[in-house]
């Protein structure tokens, strides 16, 4: 991935796009969406925390930072059997991708090998795999590629200008370097941001500019609605206007037409009508399951009911069938 950005989508052009009348913006986004995806299907991803808490970073939104007093209790790396059991349950519920998060600034080589064991366990369930582990070296990204990892998540979070207001322990360039290492290794990039951290509309346009002009563009773009966790510096942040959130989804779809645009954190606080508008604006993926790392997410049944009411259905494509010699039955899970 080149760290140089093209000029196809300037921040100014995206800011203009965000200012369009909402109906016109959604109309264009829906046309772009239908040119690249089936119009009424939603990809389901499940995200699990496999190593929780005690992160040394100071990301102002994150309940897993050791610097903040939140409800999160640190936990060691989840056993392989428990990860596989969670993946099996996710597949049974309709998910096609299983994402694993570990609260590290950057994994050690030894911990990376332990994560690779868990990636291989998820692969036996026929699911796509994604991990988010913090910063990676070129060699570590190459090792993950050798393991067959499908996606690596590393969000930019916000604009370069606003970034230092949110995080001081890792630079924007650090994030871009990790993304470059991942892409150069041949792993698909999953990269997005968070709305509702006090950023301006210009910051949102600049975030989308950063994402849309990466080369190659991210294969998945998670758009998070800030979960205001007590104990974090952003606990009292002003909520995002729902229409502004929908506008950002539409602009992401238009500027990154081949990406899965994912409704990520914060859906628990969204009305069904807001989510429906997001789907209309080109969102075609959600994080699915009642827990999203350490915070609440809509229940399985709530999502099933919403998709049914909208005449939509899950994208049901698996890379491979579960391994023929896979053990049957549930294994113990650390809840």
Please, could you describe this protein's structure?
The longest helix has 15 residues, at 22-36. Helix 5 runs parallel beside helix 7 (172-184). The protein has helices at residues 11-18, 22-36, 80-92, 109-123, 138-146, 160-163, 172-184, 201-212, 242-255, 272-280, 300-309, and strands at residues 41-51, 97-102, 128-132, 151-153, 188-190, 193-195, 220-225, 260-263, 285-287, 291-292, 295-296, 313-314. Helices cover 36% and strands 15% of the residues. The strands form 2 sheets. Strands 1, 2, 3, 4, 5, 6, 7, 8, 9 and 12 form a 10-stranded parallel β-sheet that branches. The chain is α/β, with parallel strands linked by helices. It contains 11 helices and 12 strands. Strand 3, helix 5 (138-146) and strand 4 (151-153) form a beta-alpha-beta unit.
Secondary structure layout plus pairing:
Layout: H1 11-18, H2 22-36, E1 41-51, H3 80-92, E2 97-102, H4 109-123, E3 128-132, H5 138-146, E4 151-153, H6 160-163, H7 172-184, E5 188-190, E6 193-195, H8 201-212, E7 220-225, H9 242-255, E8 260-263, H10 272-280, E9 285-287, E10 291-292, E11 295-296, H11 300-309, E12 313-314
Parallel strand pairs: 1-2, 1-9, 1-12, 2-3, 3-4, 4-5, 6-7, 7-8, 8-9
Antiparallel strand pairs: 10-11
Helix pairs in contact: 1-8, 2-9, 3-4, 5-7, 8-9, 9-10
TL;DR?
This protein is α/β, with parallel strands linked by helices.
How would a textbook summarize the main sheet?
10 strands, parallel
Q: What's the overall average pLDDT, rounded?
A: 86
Tell me roughly what share of residues is in helical segments.
Answer: 25-40%
Task: Note the beta-strand portion.
Answer: 5-15%
Q: Give the count of helical stretches.
A: 11
Q: What's the N-to-C terminus distance?
A: 37 Å
Structural class: alpha/beta
User: How big is the Rg?
Assistant: 19 Å
């Amino acid at each position: 991935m080149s760290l140089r950005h093209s000029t196809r989508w300037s921040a100014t052009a995206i800011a203009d796009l965000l200012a369009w009348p909402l109906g016109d913006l959604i109309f264009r986004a829906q046309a772009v969406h239908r040119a690249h995806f089936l119009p009424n299907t939603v990809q389901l991803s499940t995200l699990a925390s496999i190593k929780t808490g005690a992160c040394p970073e100071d990301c102002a939104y994150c309940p897993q930072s050791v610097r903040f007093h939140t409800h999160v209790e640190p936990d060691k790396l989840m056993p392989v059997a428990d990860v596989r059991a969670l993946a099996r349950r996710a597949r049974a519920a309709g998910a096609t991708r299983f994402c694993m998060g570990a609260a590290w600034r950057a994994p050690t080589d030894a911990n990376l090998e332990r994560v690779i064991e868990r990636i291989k366990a998820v692969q036996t369930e026929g699911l796509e795999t994604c991990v988010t582990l913090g910063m990676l070296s070129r060699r570590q990204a190459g090792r993950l590629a050798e393991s067959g990892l499908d996606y690596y998540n590393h969000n930019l979070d916000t604009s370069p200008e606003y970034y230092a207001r949110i995080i001081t322990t890792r630079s924007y360039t650090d994030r871009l370097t990790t993304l470059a290492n991942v892409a150069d290794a041949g792993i698909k990039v999953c990269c997005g941001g968070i709305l509702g951290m006090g950023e301006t509309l210009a910051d949102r346009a600049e975030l989308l500019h950063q994402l849309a002009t990466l080369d190659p563009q991210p294969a998945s773009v998670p758009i998070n609605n800030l979960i205001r966790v007590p104990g974090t510096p952003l606990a009292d942040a002003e909520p995002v206007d729902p229409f502004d959130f929908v506008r950002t989804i539409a602009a992401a779809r238009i500027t990154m037409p081949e990406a899965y645009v994912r409704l990520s954190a914060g859906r628990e606080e969204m009305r069904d009508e807001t989510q429906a508008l997001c789907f209309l604006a080109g969102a075609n993926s959600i994080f699915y399951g009642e827990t999203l790392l350490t915070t609440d997410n809509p229940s399985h049944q709530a999502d099933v009911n919403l998709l049914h009411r909208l005449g939509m259905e899950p994208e049901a494509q698996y890379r491979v069938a579960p391994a023929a010699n896979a053990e049957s039955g549930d294994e113990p899970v650390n809840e």
